[in-house]
Every structure is written in structure tokens, then in C-alpha cells.
Amino acid sequence: GENVEQHPSTLSVQEGDSAVIKCTYSDSASNYFPWYKQELGKGPQLIIDIRSNVGEKKDQRIAVTLNKTAKHFSLHITETQPEDSAVYFCAAKLRTSYDKVIFGPGTSLSVIP
Amino acid sequence: NAGVTQTPKFRILKIGQSMTLQCAQDMNHNYMYWYRQDPGMGLKLIYYSVGAGITDKGEVPNGYNVSRSTTEDFPLRLELAAPSQTSVYFCASSYVANEQYFGPGTRLTVT
């Protein structure tokens, strides 16, 4: 079936350094790729998304890049802060009869002060 | 707007018992979803709905049932609870299949 892979599963960085999380997807018709942040004890929350007609999108310290040919997309967080510590999920929207979103397994990011 | 609300927040069930997890949203979203998240794991789609009266199975539907009689509500029914259903359950909604808004979750333990 369709799936989304995500790496690494855990990531530890020093405060101020950059963090990169990578995802690959299998459905070549996917056209929407969101990223969610989940803080401890809470539900996931959208932090940034990208559509297939653009290659990069930025929002302050967060950026997402998309390579449709290779079917992979990445989340980049610059100047990391302790409050960036959380679990991050990538996802891809499938072009089935009812568009479904499949989530990656998540990356636990720890920012060390 | 309250967004997506879920009740109860916590529940302990005995094996074989049944219960309904409630989910409501006030954003007039047509899409609604139920996910389960096991400890340290990602989100697995249980069921989803694209509008009142329309539901479909996700990746892990066995042991669960849903109904969608109104736009606002999307309850999840567990019949004959099993220890394997111990998990955190999240409800979400979206306008078409784009940004999903998640509820705070229901932590369920089956013993």
C-alpha cells in the first residue's frame, strides 16, 4: 500500500544549530505535504505545508523543500530553540477517491540548551 | 470557536466492555478522522468521513465502528474492548483533505 517514510526517528541538536528531517512518499500523484508538530500530551498541530507546484516554502525559522522527481521532501529548522523540542510528523495526501493523508512515523527532536 | 473537542480525556475499560469516544467540531469541516497513537509511534488512521452519512475504513479499522449523522459529530465505537486497543485516540477535522485540526486526545487503557 501507499506509505510515507521518515528519517531520522530521533534527532538531538545543540541550541542554535539546524535540524533536518527527511521524508519519502510512494504515491507519485500526491500533491499536498504537511508537517505537524506534537508537543507532549497534546494533539499534532500543523506548522508548515507545501503543495506540489512549488519547490520550497519558508516561514521564519522553518522551511520545507520538495523534490517531486525523487518523491522526497524535507523540513529544515534553523537556529533551534528548546521550545522546538517535540515530535514532528510529515504527511502526504493520497489521490484516492477520497483524498486521504498518510502520516510518517515521526521524528523526536531534542534541542539541548 | 472551540475547535475539535473530545470526551472523555481518560478512560479505563475492562476486557469485553464497550464504549463510545465522542468527537465534535464547530468549524463546519466536512472531513473528519479518527487516529490511534501507540506509545512512541506514529498516527494510524482508523476511520474517516468526508461528510454526513459517508464513512470509510482507514489502515486499522478492526474492532471499531463509526457513524456520521451530522457535520459536527463523529463518534467512535469500541465493541468488546481488547488490551490491543490500549492507545491514545485523536479525532481531527479538515476542510477537504488539507490542514487537519486535532483534538486533545482520549487516553484509553484496557485491562
Oligomeric composition of the shown chains:
heterodimer
What count of helical segments of chain A does DSSP give? 0
Structural class of chain B: mainly beta
Please report the two chains with the greatest interface, counting residues with C-beta closer than 8 angstroms to the partner's C-beta: A-B, 20 and 20 residues
Number of strands of chain B: 11
N-C termini distance of chain B = 36 Å
Radius of gyration of chain A: 14 Å
Radius of gyration of chain B from the CA trace?
A: 13 Å
Unreliable parts of chain B: none
Strand content of chain A: over 45%
Give the integer mean of the pLDDT values of chain B. 94
Secondary-structure content class of chain A:
mainly beta
Helices and strands of chain B, in order, run as: EEEEEEEEEEE
The number of helical runs of chain B is: 0
Helical residue percent band of chain A: under 10%
Short description:
The complex is a heterodimer of chains A (113) and B (111). By secondary structure, chain A is mainly beta. Chain A has strands spanning 4-7, 10-14, 19-25, 32-38, 45-51, 56-59, 62-67, 72-77, 86-94, 100-103, 107-112.
